[in-house]
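Our platform keeps sequence and structure together, in a single record for each protein. This encoding replaces a full spatial description with a residue-level series of whole-number codes. We quote a single record here, exactly as it is kept in our systems:
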Amino acid sequence: MKDLSEKTEQIKENQNNILEIIQVKNLKKRYKHITALDGISFSVKRGEVFGFLGPNGAGKTTTINILCTLVLPNSGLAYVNGYHIANQPNLVRESIGLVFQETTLDNHLTAEENLYLHAMLYGVSRKDFIKRKREILKLCELWDKRKMKVETFSGGMKRRLELVRALIHWPQILFLDEPTIGLDPQTRKKIWDYIFAVRSKKNTTIFLTTQYLNEAERCDRIAIIDHGKIVAIDTPKNLKRMIGGDIIIFKTENNQQAEKEFRKKFPEYPIKWIGKELKIEIDNGNKFLPILVKAISPHITSMQLRQPTLEDVFLEITGRKIREEINGKLEEEENRGFDISSLFTLFNSPDAEEKKPKTEKR
């Protein structure tokens, strides 16, 4: 028994010493005739806030489902907290917390009862539950609402409760799939305040998917995913450096003529069409503006000068805006990757380690 205990402690120590808490290599996933993930590779450092930025259907939810052992990949390797997602799924699940896109709370239970049910599934002792419950409910400003039924909660309160529930066992990695989608800006800010408070308190690694550019800006690093491929990965600051300088977007009474004149007078600067407007990337944009106004003859009807954003990075890499729809079918396939009720089977079955999660709807 002593040898087994020592071995268990050694395993735990090894997990805590892993610098890269998530490791993914050449991960692929197909749903019938649709490729959701096309050989993605990346890693996430321990304690990092790592963002997956991309439009609907890009493969964000599929990635989270695979890393959380809810869906199996067709090929490739993935390790979470040092554990193989397919061979050691229970050890992966013990290491993570997960907040889904859709609400999975039981509306007929109180906030406290929802937390207790989740704590039981994760094997949290009653003593630890009582201590943690108070700590995280106060953190997310829900302590006074703990005896209320969830059906009386607003959307923002439910989202905060789901965050609390995912933290009740103090996971090493918190997965957040579009955590603030559909919430008002004030509630979104509060959610982020809670996320950073948890990270600061427990050095929890945060892995989130998002379509919101201002949320992606708050990540330590971002992977931009499109059509199931990672097209760029770096810090927000470094990604925006890809654009270079300032951005000038303008519209004239004759854009074709304005483009022609610009290319002739400033051949060293690229000019692009963005819808019905023209776009220039240039250093010291404020000094170049008056030069531009004098250089072209068509009357300028609108003009803006700004710093590069992640939207510009996505546009530069993919040729379109992040809000454009990609493929409604893929999004539908992603979101039906598993049934939430299967979680109860996974945690309660005595031989759950031998069972594999349901991967596709037959």
The chain has two domains: 20-235+329-350, 244-307.
